[in-house]
Design brief:
The protein is of the alpha/beta class. Helix content is 44%, strand content 16%. The chain has a 7-stranded parallel β-sheet with strand order 3-2-1-4-5-6-9, sandwiched between helices. Strands 7-11 form a two-stranded parallel sheet. Strands 8-10 form a two-stranded antiparallel ribbon. Helix 1 crosses helix 6, helix 3 runs parallel beside helix 4 and helix 8 packs antiparallel against helix 9. It starts with a strand and ends with a helix.
Length: 293
């Protein structure tokens, strides 16, 4: 069985990929910075390599005897003073250099749908710069391009809890976000897939209005939706660019851009947003009961 190195094992998607690999009897080495975080999340692996991927010296030989590298490394909210170029680009480049040195057979990288057309966004600029280098590396590769995670849709639920959901435009933009467990399955399938790029979304295509309504339905409250005109979105972006630092502006820029366009990808998986929102509601109820105790 092939030996796989997973970088980003303690992240949202990385955790699901690691579990899927172990369930399929792969030998899995996790590249992690924090052993405690791996234990906290109860992630089981065959082997652990501790190192900081942003520091090339600390990951030396991490790819020794590795057949496949899967990287989900990237940041949506900067921390530790690191930038998108530090993590989404340079950290992955450090890993790619190790993969090349050790003759890794395939490198699988998770980017974002339409990233190649959104390089004006700070997040996508760094990701796609790495994609360009991966393509030139000489290694067999696969770039997985999801259009958004269920976890990103939590914002709809949180707004609905407060009684009103605010949407950009007329609410008719479409998307089909994917659950991390479903995306993990596809990433593992990509090990033996000959495709070099895979665009993927969840099993149901919904408008933003429909996503908001599902959140209200899960909460069993009346749906109240306000549509924000595009000129206001543009104004917010201009003001944010002037007054916010990159680490704060980047996520806002990405969110306000992709929420004002269709983000539909080929359908895959089994998990639905209705199930996801219902689980969020159940989790809220459990937390309420615990606080009462």
């Amino acid at each position: 069985m092939k030996k796989v190195l997973i970088a980003g094992a303690t992240g949202y998607l990385g955790g699901y990929i690691t579990k899927e690999l172990m369930n399929n009897s792969y030998t899995v080495k996790a590249l992690v910075r924090s052993l405690e975080k791996l234990e906290e999340k109860n992630i089981e692996v065959s082997e652990i390599f501790q190192g900081e991927i942003t520091k090339s010296d600390s990951i030396k030989d991490c790819c020794k005897d590795i057949d496949i590298v899967i990287s989900t490394v990237g940041i949506t909210r900067q921390k530790d003073g690191l930038t998108y170029m530090d993590v989404d680009y340079q950290a992955n480049m450090n890993l790619l250099e190790e993969a090349k040195k050790n003759a890794v057979k395939k490198f699988i990288y998770v980017s974002v749908l339409n990233g190649e057309n959104l390089k004006n966004l700070k997040i996508c600029e760094a990701k796609e710069l790495f994609v360009e280098q991966l393509k030139k590396s000489g290694l067999d590769y696969c770039i997985v391009r999801p259009n958004g995670f269920f976890s990103d849709m939590t914002e709809f639920y949180e707004m609905a809890k407060k009684g009103r959901v605010y949407l950009l435009g007329d609410g008719k933009y479409q998307t089909n976000p994917i659950h991390g467990e479903d995306l993990a399955k596809l990433c593992v399938e990509a090990i033996n897939d000959s495709k070099q790029e895979i665009e993927v979304g969840g099993p149901e295509i919904l408008t933003h209005d429909e996503i908001a309504i599902k959140a209200f339905e899960a909460l069993k409250i009346e749906a109240k939706i306000t549509h924000i005109p595009n000129w206001m979105r543009i104004s917010i972006l201009k003001i944010a660019r002037l007054f916010l630092k990159d680490k704060t502006y980047g996520p806002i820029e990405f969110f306000l851009t992709v929420m004002a366009m269709n983000m539909v990808a080929p359908e895959y998986g089994k998990h639905t947003l209705k199930e996801y929102f219902t689980k969020l509601k159940m989790s809220d109820k459990l937390n309420e009961n615990d606080s009462i105790k």
